[in-house]
Amino acid sequence: MNALTYESPDSVDEAVKLLAAADGNAKLLAGGTDLLVQLRMGMITPSLIIDVKKISETTVVKEVNGGYRVGAAVSGAVLGEHEGMKSAWPGVVEALELIGSTQIQGRASMGGNLCNGSPAADAVPAMIAADAICTIAGPNGRREARVEDIVIGPGVTSLETGEMVVDFLFPARPARSGDAYLRFIPRTEMDIAVVGAGVSLTLDEAGVCTAARLALGAVAATQLVVEDGAAALIGSTLDDAAMAKLDAAARAACRPIDDKRGTIEYRTKVAGVLARRATKIAQQRAEG
Amino acid sequence: MAKIHVTTTINGEPTEFLCEPQQTLLDVLRDELRLTGSKEGCGTGDCGACSVILDGRLVCSCLALGAEAEGQEVETIEGMADGDNFHPLQQKFLEGAALQCGICTPGFLIAAKSLLERNPDPSETEVRYWLAGNLCRCTGYDKIIRAVLECAADMRGNQA
Amino acid sequence: MTSVTTELKWVGKSPIRPDGADKVTGRAKFGADLMLPGMLVGKVLRSPHAHAAIKSIDTTKAEALPGVKAVMTAADIEPMSSEWVPAGELQLNYRDLSNNIMASGKVLYDGHAVAAVAATSAAIADAALQLIVVDYEVLPHVIDVEEAMEPDAPILHDDMFTQGVTPTPDKPSNVFKEVDIAVGDVDAGFAKADLIIERSFKTAPVHQGYLEPHAAVASFAEDGQAELWCCTQGHFSVRAYCAKLLGMDISDLRVTASEIGGGFGGKTTVYLEPVALLLSRKSGRPVRAVMTREDVFRASGPTSGAATWVKVGVTKDGKIVAGQAVLKYQAGAFAGSPIQPGCMCAFAPYDIENVKVKGYDVVTNRPKVAAYRAPGAPISEHAVESVLDEISKKLGIDPLELRERNAAKEGTNAAYGPKFGVIGFADTLAAAKAHPHYSAPLGPNQGRGVASGFWFNIGGESCATLNVAEDGTLVLATGSPDIGGSRASMAIMAAETIGMDVADVRTIVADTASIGYTFLTGGSRVTFATGMAVIEASKQVTETLRERAAKIWDISVDAVVWEDGHAKPAGANAGEFEPLSLGEIAAQAGKTGGPISANVALNAEGAGPGFGTHICDVEVDRETGAVKVLRYTAVQDCGKAIHKAYVEGQIQGGAAQGIGWALNEEYIYNKEGRLDNAGFLDYRIPVASDLPMIDTVIVEVANPNHPYGVRGVGEVPIIPPMAAVANAIDSAIGIRMTELPMSPPKVLAALDNGS
């Protein structure tokens, strides 16, 4: 039997020290909605669980220069009550809030959702569309990285052994900006995303799109940043022609698999549909 | 495997227990504290039968470690009635036949209580989505949703 | 027999259930809630292969692990000979049962039990399982029912030679038996038809989906007596099966039925119970064994997946002249799918002169199927109700009207044998037609579908014991585990019959040592059959009370009447006596002859068949194939609803299960034959936000064979939804879906192919 221990440090420095001492055999615990399932299934056998929730940096939301710094362990329930984030980044908040049930929301966090590395993670496409930056702490101090560079394969992140994500920075929004996240699931709740689409965009006074980012989830081994999709939107008024190009770009970018949640054909088709629908919602939000 | 000594508050009562690091809060409630009202329907957070309120938040106790209860407040179904008096939701569930086999009922009651504490006037859609994490196989949800809506109306009436 | 009385005080009301306070406070004890001192944790090791020979099992390391008190394999069970007994609506074979609860020689499905341990903690039990070494020789497997029927399919049982075929084949196959039901001459019938439609359908295996995993606590004493606590629909069945498997005298085993967290037919057999008993016998300590959710999906008794083909011929005015079907059902690893009831029910709602149904019971490398709410009927009736919908649309006849023109009535000869007595099918059709739902307007991409369903319902052996306490309150004991609120219905029937307050009747479910043999809770039989025993016992108690009053007044018993819960003189000539209440008579029981009680054991016959008609509205998202159920109305003939709210609840719950079966529930296997979705995350039962309110209409066409007119209600409601939803989708987008579940990828593919 693997002797397991549990620690709950109250600072990042202490957590990093514990990680170093465990030499790769520790797991970080935020909401536990992935970790405890994997532990129960025997998919992971750590020797140490480090509970980060007593570390205030990971559990608070702070306004920073018009943007927001969100602790990695902030739960969906807490973020869902934050008026500032809901107003500035409704797509990010709704993406996190789509994960699981109300009970899951009471615990699940962006840090956990990202670092679990699932290609179908709901929060991640919206975070990528927002071009959020994460702060990472490790044995060599702190560094920053774009969220889009974190997940590099199913269940695999670019974090080095001994590193942990502390928080996420969501920049201040230019005026007339909006974001949205949509996912497709067979029921109305509780399912893992078959396809996820996160869109963030900015419009000018005339309704022309001046900036856009599109990220897709569950259609490849990692989340995809669809540059062609963004290009289809930028410079357009998001008219039918632009939507058709967006749809095609989204479909072209997909590299999905057949599994118990969806087929290649289905995911590809629906990726285009969701990219369009999410864009329309983001547009409405941008227009206020 | 050394056990962890945890000091916590359960249904308002100061409580101490020993648990192994991998034991979930659900394991501890049922096996160590003999509070068997919270049920294991799946063990993976997909059914809601183990719902408790941890530090004011509705959670699945199968997805929290027993060790995490340290210094927190835990509310379970056993604490929902006030002595001899049912919580209005418990009474409404009985009157409205909102349970058949009853295995999902503790989870639904805790979840519904959490909803009404936050939103005393939910719509039918809001009730259904809030309770989507509580599975029921016997009722088709109809009478459960009606009981929650009627109870919310009653409770609002009593406040007025 | 007596007709239904017109002024009923309790029947038809909805009093609060007697087990309610315990259930809303968490006090009620379900299967996994019992703890005994010294109790060990039992866990089961399961096969990771769909089909493999067991070359050897080495348990020595597990036995040596500190904290392990017992280890068992099939070697600990006496070999059984092949013996078939009735079990609910299905049949059971003891050799197969024994091999299912613990594999012997071969494993036949992913999850098949191969060994079990009892240890002092869950962690030690898990570690012990890891130390058991099983040497498997993996064999090719087969899961799809039609693939299993191919001549070159991997064979599960070398000694399976198809029954129902003449001459008996000399080569083993996976077809356990063929079933044939026929009346009239279908060829002649089809020759008269103006329109013939034939269609093939496929359904995926689904699980009953009860929220409570199987759980049992067993305590074996050194003198051979044992106690067993388990969640079950039939504790007398559990007693019989376990006694047989363990070689015990039946009366040495006392089984208590805990509160049960859902069953729907899936808890009518045994899985863990004999294992827990054996481990307890070996270790000398109580053992609790509980299935994980994964185990429940992999290794309990989900129902058949099937391939069906239906052909119906009608004249141009919609009269059905011939009906034919071929049904192929998976039985799982051992013989015994519900093919027989499936064949019997397929065309049963309709008056058809010429019917021919052929059925195949086919073993495949999946868990052995157990009953699931009207076993076999949802699959076959889905096919027929879908074809009838096509016919109604082709002929331009309203689908309810088409059914009305062909509905079975009193006196109709059912294709499967008996002549129908009083039945309410036509009444359900009329009520559906008249319902505002049926004429409500629909929007774009929305469609409406209707479908009907039939189930026989059963009676069976039932006991009731009624004891009058010294204060005149009653304790009513039956042997029927309560899976839907039957304790409340029993109290209602007793109170109504005796004329007393229902709150003064306490109902309990007695254990196997405390009441006579009672057939399991299933087949929609309890309110009908156990109800009959309760009513009979109540009448006997009333008779006794009259006799005691007569003694007290020193008059002839003929001069005493029982009215409104009181004994009264029959007339002025009988004497001037104040009425005596139950309580007053009970207080003098000792002086007037002893304790007042009644004990009834009967085998109830005359169960009334049930019919339902459902209306379903859906909206289809044409870009994603998602189907949303907008509105649902279920009409059912219940004979007499004893507890109105619980009858509604049965209808709503069954409808919800049928909707899940229609839209998203299915077993998904990988290419190794391992179950890919053994959890509630990817086995997708409806959640609260998936469903609208389910409106119910109770039609009451009394069953003349029950004192209050009761018909079984629990099973009928699961039958119409699959076709109702499919018919609604067809109305919405003009596409006939023939494969269940009608999940979004399938609907979208059908839309894209324009099929």
Can you describe what's shown?
The complex is a heterotrimer of chains A (288), B (160) and C (755). The longest helix of chain A is centred in the C-terminal third of the chain and has 23 residues. Chain A folds into three domains: 46 residues; 113 residues, Uridine Diphospho-n-acetylenolpyruvylglucosamine Reductase, domain 3 (2-Layer Sandwich); 95 residues, CO dehydrogenase flavoprotein, C-terminal domain (Enolase-like, domain 1, 2-Layer Sandwich). Chain A is of the alpha+beta class and 288 residues long. In chain A, 35% of the residues lie in helices and 25% in strands. Chain A has twelve helices and 14 strands. Chain B contains five helices and five strands; from the N terminus they run ββαβββαααα. Chain B is globular. The relative contact order of chain B is 0.15. The mean pLDDT of chain B is 96. With 755 residues, chain C is of the alpha+beta class. Among the domains of chain C are: 154 residues, Aldehyde Oxidoreductase, domain 4, CATH 3.30.365.10; 228 residues, Aldehyde oxidase/xanthine dehydrogenase, molybdopterin binding domain (Aldehyde Oxidoreductase, domain 4, 2-Layer Sandwich), CATH 3.30.365. In chain C, helix 7 packs across helix 8 and helix 10 packs parallel to helix 11. The longest helix of chain C is centred in the last third of the chain and has 28 residues. Chain C starts with 19 loop residues before the first helix and ends with a helix. The chains are: A alpha+beta (288), B alpha+beta (160), C alpha+beta (755). Chains in contact: A-B, A-C, B-C. At the B-C interface, helix 2, helix 3, helix 4 and helix 5 of B face helix 1 and helix 18 of C.
